[in-house]
Amino acid sequence: MTRRAAHELTDDEMARRNLEAIHASPSYVLAQRDLEMLARPELRPIRMQLELLKPELAFGHEGIDSTVVIFGSTQIVERRHAEGLLAAAERALAADPHNPMLSRAVARRQKTVDKSHYYDEARELARLITNSSEHSEFVVVTGGGPGIMEAANRGAFDVGQKSIGLNITLPSEQSPNPYITPSLCFQFHYFAMRKMHFLLRAKALVVFPGGFGTIDELFDALTLRQTNRMQHIPIILYGNEYWRRVIDFQYLADEGAIQDEHLTLMQYADAPAEAWNAILEFYANPPKQPPTETTEG
Prior knowledge:
Elements: H1 3-7, H2 11-24, H3 35-38, H4 44-62, E1 67-71, H5 79-95, H6 100-114, H7 117-132, E2 139-142, H8 148-158, E3 164-168, E4 185-188, H9 191-200, E5 202-207, H10 212-226, E6 235-238, H11 240-246, H12 249-254, E7 266-269, H13 272-284
Parallel strand pairs: 1-2, 1-5, 2-3, 3-4, 5-6, 6-7
Helix pairs in contact: 4-9, 5-6, 7-8, 7-13
């Protein structure tokens, strides 16, 4: 049986169909538009390069020379929101008063209410920073999500100034907060590239109470400062009581895990003006560089 008889197609019709298949083939898509190819494991270096380059181009276009990074928990929200969550937890417990998990949920929600003042203070700190700075200097940057990040972006928004949000793709979708400058809101797949952008232009780091993600970013900056692998910046732990309980840096020094001088890598603040003044003082009278750590602690 001939090819034509088998398909009942003329040579011209077969050629036309083959040409359609050529146009539809992934191989014919321009490489820069081939999303399936870009998603291949072999293209990971290219994707990482793009995540480094895309924000760099935007920062250059916007004329952003330096930033102040503000980290903190996604769970620290405005007081009215925190009180609403507490009320819901209390209603659930009232319906099942002997449930230990519901009792713990109420206790945790009360802690969230107690810490809601940090939301207001992060917002006020961002207002202070952006009101006192040049348009291209000390631009507030956050992780772009809710909680303390939202508060900091909101503070800049309050005074009509730009701010940056570096969001990250997570298994549970994290939408950017609504206060970020639209042209300065970025979404990352790679934590490593996001970390680089947090610190490349940083002139200061202010760390509000937070959990794993906040502590991870804090220790990343402390390690880079300890080893002199990044610019000398003030690292401010906001919330003296919280941070001294969560991380006992003095104990690390007492145990010989870090040098005493490394305790000067961070300082504490309990008010927005105190944190902002600490940043100003750092640049007015730069402290002595602590010694470089050459061995792993």
